[in-house]
Design a protein that fits this description.
InterPro entries: Leu-rich_rpt_Cys-con_subtyp, LRR_dom_sf. With 513 residues, the protein is of the alpha/beta class. The strands form three sheets. The protein has a ten-stranded parallel beta sheet. A six-stranded parallel beta sheet has the order 1-2-3-4-7-8. Helix 6 links the parallel strand 2 and strand 3. Bound molecules: 2-acetamido-2-deoxy-beta-D-glucopyranose (NAG) (3 copies). One 2-acetamido-2-deoxy-beta-D-glucopyranose (NAG) binds next to helix 14 and helix 15.
Length: 513
């Protein structure tokens, strides 16, 4: 593809004369090729100002300068504005040398922009205002960590006071992290509510306080909320949204958000009511006694991250996964405690459609493996046909207790590895049992387990070098193995592995310390 062509071109040093001598600027996909060239050279720090001057051609439709931010001066910004009027994507993350007024001029010359990245730049209220009045097709905007922005700046993105009209109505993704340099402010929550109400296409608003803004929208008690003069009030925005809704029968205002990054468990019922279409969420669990029943009404949710503030029993989660487990594509759980081993097994059994699973679990097994509740008789080990990434960290809840052998978990891990034919990435951390037997069972001759495995990371796990040799000999796609702090791998084993890799010509990177 194009990437290969660009790479071949770069195999010799990119002298400007060579580049200009080639006729490829005039061919149709030149814009694409130029973008890849800048990407490639940016990574290798080979872009010089001269190269940039030569690469900024009118055919460009996508330009990513975030890899060489130091080179991007006011002059370069002016040159982009002057020459590359056809851009639909422009990434300037970290290009903090461009003054605000040059950013305004640049934006005003790019009416076709669909994606714009301005995080960590001198972007200020005037820049947002220019975006609002110029970029009517904009779908994605990143203005996080811009020190010159205040919560009030956001009004100007969504509403053009001079024209008296709404702007950026196609915007779907807006990142405004880092606006809250001080603590949470009522102004910020209000500005977020304004944006949520004024931008009808918004699917993802990235900021720590979005769920609070959703809460305000639910309560609709905006009395006394001061919006700067010239802007519609929050009440007016609610009325406009109610008039725009397609389902006139429903009396409730809902938002089309698809992702929410930080939801407190206590606000979950309200978030689910206002944002019924969420597909991806991170929920921070508090110390409540039972998991919120609101989880069960979350029909569109496919990607869920759960973080426990304090350790909670994994068993509690089973009532949730029993209902929404089959719709899970990605599940990440952090901070749960396993007291009886069967809960892990039941949890996985509830989620056969997972693509990505990540768990950081504490073990606190009782001496006698207690008889578990019957969650489903005659449990057949599920086949995880879609699973590509599996990460498991198991540590003791109390560092003083000796590690527990956990034979059930060991059997369950073996079963997952055997029954996930598409697995590409496997990361295991601090497992309390030896992995040699696990891999021996999984890699039995003529099996199809792990044939797609690319990345293996075993941090502080008991595994011997003969098992790693077994993996090298097996049929798979391994290109990186990390064995840091594995107590049974010694320097001589590592050297031996490296020798084998080089002797057999494997394209494989092994790390060990
Ligand atoms: C701008 O892009 C459009 C399609 O994206 C293309 O048809 C047009 O030729 C381009 N203009 C220039 C000057 O490259
Ligand atoms: C959910 O996770 C899967 C697997 O990682 C990913 O392919 C998919 O794009 C994610 N969906 C959303 C809405 O982020
Ligand atoms: C998983 O472990 C449980 C014990 O905790 C055991 O009953 C079950 O058979 C195991 N499942 C598989 C597939 O190994």
């Amino acid at each position: 593809g194009v990437g290969r062509k660009a790479a071949a071109l770069l195999a010799s040093p990119p002298r400007a004369s060579r580049l200009t001598a080639r006729p490829f600027f005039s061919v149709a996909p030149a814009g694409c090729l130029v973008r890849e060239l800048i990407d490639l050279m940016g990574t290798g720090r080979r872009v010089t100002r001269l190269v940039l001057h030569l690469l900024l051609v009118p055919q460009l439709t996508e330009l990513d300068l975030s890899r060489c931010p130091k080179l991007v001066s006011k002059t370069i910004a002016e040159m982009v504005a002057h020459r590359c009027k056809n851009l639909s994507l422009l990434y300037l993350q970290g290009c903090s040398r461009i003054p605000s007024d040059a950013l305004v001029d640049l934006i005003e010359s790019l009416p076709g922009l669909k994606k714009l990245g301005l995080s960590e730049t001198q972007c200020n209220t005037q820049v947002l205002s220019a975006i609002g009045s110029t970029c009517q097709y904009l779908c994605e905007l990143d203005v996080s960590d811009c020190k010159r922005l205040s919560p009030e700046s956001l009004f100007h993105l969504a509403y053009d006071v001079t024209a008296g009209s709404f702007s950026c109505q196609a915007l779907q993704v807006l990142s405004v992290g880092g606006l809250e340099s001080s603590a949470r402010s009522q102004n910020l929550v209000r500005a977020l509510a304004f944006v949520l109400l004024a931008l009808p296409s918004l699917r993802f608003l990235e900021n720590e306080f979005v769920s609070e803004a959703v809460y305000e929208i639910f309560r609709q008690q905006f009395k006394g909320a001061q919006i700067a003069p010239g802007f519609p009030s929050l009440e007016e925005l609610v009325q406009r949204r109610m008039a725009m809704r397609t389902d006139k029968a429903s009396s409730r205002l809902t938002l089309p958000l698809k992702e929410l990054l930080e939801v407190d468990e206590s606000s979950l019922p309200i978030v689910c009511t206002v944002c019924p279409h969420l597909t991806k969420a991170t929920v921070l669990l508090d110390d409540g006694s039972a998991l919120s029943p609101a989880f069960s009404s979350w029909h569109a949710l496919s990607n869920l991250t759960l973080d426990c503030g304090r350790p909670r029993q994994l068993r509690e989660l089973l009532s949730v996964t029993a209902i929404i487990g089959t719709q899970m594509q990605s599940l990440s759980i952090d901070g749960f405690v396993v007291k009886d081993e069967s809960s892990f097994h039941v949890l996985l059994g509830h989620c056969p459609n997972l693509r990505k699973f990540s768990a950081s679990i504490f073990l606190s097994l009782s001496c006698q493996s207690q008889k578990s509740t019957d969650w489903g008789a005659a449990f057949v080990p599920p086949r995880f046909s879609h699973l590509t990434e599996f990460t498991l960290s198991l540590s003791s809840l109390h560092t003083s207790t000796p590690s527990q052998p956990a034979p059930g978990l060991r059997a369950n891990l073996t079963s997952v590895l055997k029954n996930s034919p598409g697995l590409e990435s496997l990361v295991l951390l601090y497992l309390p049992f030896c992995l040699d037997g696990v891999f021996e069972k999984v890699l039995e001759p003529r099996g199809t387990a792990l044939v797609h495995l690319r990345h293996l990371s075993l941090l502080q796990c008991k595994v011997s070098s003969s098992t790693i040799h077994l993996l090298l000999a097996a049929d798979n796609q391994l290109d990186s193995i990390h064995l840091d702090k594995c107590p049974d791998i010694y320097r001589r084993d590592y050297d031996e592995l490296l020798r084998r890799v080089s002797k057999e010509g494997f394209d494989l990177h092994i790390e060990w310390q």
